[in-house]
Structures are given as C-alpha cells and as structure tokens.
Amino acid sequence: MSFIEINNIWKEYGPHVILERLNIQVEKGEFITIVGASGCGKTTFLKLLLGTETATRGELTLEGKKILDEPSDERGIVFQKYSVFPHLNVLENVLIGVEFEQSKYLSRLFGKKKSDARKEAEEILKAVGLGHAIRKFPHELSGGMQQRLALAQALIKKPKILLLDEPFGALDPGIRQDMHALVLNLWREHQLTIFMITHDLKEGFYLGTRLWVFDKTRHDEHSPESYGATITFDLPVTRCSEDDFSEIETSMKKNKSQPA
Amino acid sequence: MKKLINQNPKITSRWALGIIPFFLIGIIYLMASNARLAENPDDKLLPSFASIGAAVNRMAFEPSKRTGEYLMVADTVSSLKRLIIGVGVSALTALLLGVFMGAIPYVRANLSPLVTAISLIPPMAILPILFITFGLGELSKVMLIVIGIAPFLIRDTLQRVLDIPQEQLIKAQTLGANTWQIIVRVIFPQVMPRLLAAIRLSLGAAWLFLIAAEAIASTDGLGYRIFLVRRYMAMDVILPYVAWITLLAFAIDYILNRLSKRLYPWFHAGV
To answer: Which CATH superfamily, name and number, covers B69-268?
Structure first.
C-alpha cells in the first residue's frame, strides 16, 4: 500500500468534466511538482487533496484511510496569497497552530506551555529566515517574507503532506531562487511529502523529484467540456530528455489563449 | 504650470482653505443679524453673539431656578447616556449575530432574511409601537436607536465576515482549528475594527433617532430642549445646542477613530 493512493478519480460539475481517470500512487517523501495549462484542473486536484472539494467518482486514500473531505491538520497549505493572518504578528501567526491544538476553547496558552510553544515557533521561524522579524505584522513584510511565514505556519503542525499552490507565483525572480533553496532545505530536513503547483516548468524540474503534467487526452470539438484532464506525464525528474521538456512546454502553452 | 488635478495645497494653505468657509458663514450671520437687530432690537430669529453667549451662560453655568440643575449639563448627560446605551446594545448585537451568521451557513440561512426584512422597516414608522410597548421612559428611546441602526450594523458585520478571504479560513483549518476557534481567533479580531468603522458611520443615524425620540416624548435631553424652546422661538438657545451636538458628534467620531488606530494598527496600515 502506498502512502497516497489515487484510484480512478473523476471530478465533474454537472456535464462539465474537470478531471478524469486519475490513477496514481505517491510514496512518502516525494516532492511532486504539477504543471499544466491554466484551467486544466491542477488546482481542483490540489483541492481534492486538501479536502475543500470531493471527487465525484473514485477513491483517494492517505495511509490507507479515505482522505477527510474537509481541511485538517494532516495537510498543510500555502496559497499564492492570503495565507497568513493579518491581525497577528509573525510569532503569533506560527504560535496559533499550537494554540489551536492545545487549548480547544480559549485557544490561548499560558505559562510553561506558552514558553515551550514559543521556543518551538522561534526555532521554525529561524529556519525559514524570519528570526529577526518575529514582532512584525504581515503588512510590514515583503511578499517573499510573507510566504516564508506561511511555510513556517504549516511546518509547526508537521503535516503529512504539504500542498503549495503556486506559492512563488507573485514573487520577483531573485527572491524566488532564495525560496527554492529554502523549500528544498525544509523538504530534506523535515522529510516532507510535497505537492506543488507551478506555472514555471523550470521551477517544476528544479524542485521536484517527480513531475506531473495535467492535460486532456481526449478532445471533442463540439463540446470541449465533456472530457476532463488527466496526468499525461509522470516523470522522475532526473530522467528528463530535451524532447520531453519541449513537448511539455508546448502542452502548457497551447491553451494560453483560452480563459482559465 | 501643472494640471489642476496635480496641484496639492501645502499643510498651512490647506488649513486656511478649510477655515475660510466657516469664517465666511460667521461673517454673513453677523451681518444679517446686525441688520435685523438694527430694525427690531427684540428680533429673535438671528440673535447676536452676545445674547447667544448669555443664553449659554444661563443654560450651562447657572443652576436652573426651577430645578436647581445645570440644564445643558443635565441634558447632555441624559442624551449621551441614551446614545451610548443604544449604540452599545446595537454594536453588541451586531457583533454576535454578524459573526455567527457570517461564520456558520446554517445560522445565516436562518436569520439573514429576517434581518434584511427588519432593516427595511422605516424606524420612525414604528416609533408609536415602541412607545405603546415600552412606555414613554428610557427604554423606548434606546430601542428606537437600536432598531434604527442595529440592522445596518448586523448586515455590515456579516458582510465583513464574508469578506475575509476563504484562504484564511482554510489555512486555520489546516492548522487544526475547529469552528469555535476560527470564530474566536480568526474572524472576531478581524471584524472588530470593521465594526468600529461601521459604528462611526451609523452615529449620524443614531443621533437622528435620539433627537426624534426626545422631541416626541421626553422630559430632558438635548433634543427635548431644542423642541421645547422652539415654542418661544429661542434661537439663542437652539443655535448653541445644535453647535454643541455637532461638537459632541465630532468628538465621539474622533475618539472611536483614535481607539481603532491604537487597538488595530494592522487594520489601518492599508494592506
């Protein structure tokens, strides 16, 4: 039994098929990068893992159990934006994860519990490079620093899988490189299983141990919505040829003119 | 020469420009008042600044011959008490209902149509009902303010809760939060400064309902006094009372704004 099993998953909205015939297994510790044209169901797939959407057919299991159909602390997430709480400072943003767990009603900690949680939070913040900014509020942070904070928030919960939805899409190229180094570092150190959606194919190849391409294999000119996308490429990243790269790049570009 | 839309006054000229209209209104009043008083020294419509000053002195700084109270002070205290209780009750209701309606879809489906319907009732139209059910005492005046502004505050709070990005609610769940924790730690603190802003907006309406209620059935209060002395055309009392109410309204608005900026600096940082 694999860590994550995806058995013949379909996602449909009425007659509109988004995803079809997804069959794939994922092992613990894999770093999966997901690319594809916009509107091809990458984000829908991530939402299935996250639990905000439910598959219309098929089965999705995590460690042999059906995955919960609402978000839980088994799965961490970093969105492109709005991932951090604007009314809490950096330290509080990370602490809140511990407080949710240890204080069901007040969701506040006091005394030794608080100082223990604080130590843990400070360590993680140092690891993501925010050790110097723990008293700052999110609006005082740059986009890159906010994403670092969002990662730290997720990490303190030690999620079984970490989902990243274009986390660096809004960042400048230079800052993106720093973030790549950081994510790879955290992935190794915490032995995370990561799913990451990206628009940037190079990023996908650079970061992942495995690259998935979402695309439609069947087309109907007269009702384009009656077929959904599926995983057309599943590549171990080390074994990628130039041909594959350019073929994937074309498949990502061809739908660009269509609205997402 | 820059385009007009790109020319910004400096701080001193901005102040000067802002004061000029007030100054002009004062001058015009003074001229008109002088002209009328020259014709008829007993004219009551546009009293001179001197007689306004005398009226203020009589109302605020000398005890009333009949009751021994300082009338303007007593009026201010009773009006402010009604206003603060009315607005406070409305705000508390809005906070509770708005947050729970916003956070829990079942509560929203259950209560949202009712709140919308109530908000469409013109409050003044049900003032007689309030007087009949709650009597002519304090309760009916406070209730008029509550009925007048609470529906707006509830709907505004509800909308502000719905404006919180879904991503944040999902994120909180991935951090292990249950419904109650999301309400207490994510929704409630983010709604507070927005509620304060809504209260500031609703204060105008709250004053309107307060003065209306006092005008119709009361034995003290700023609105009561204005409508009482209207019978004697006592403009020398009405005008300073109106100015005083305006000043009070301004002061409350200013205090709420400062409070919000002090308590919720992240909200005012403009993200």
So the answer is: MetI-like (1.10.3720.10)
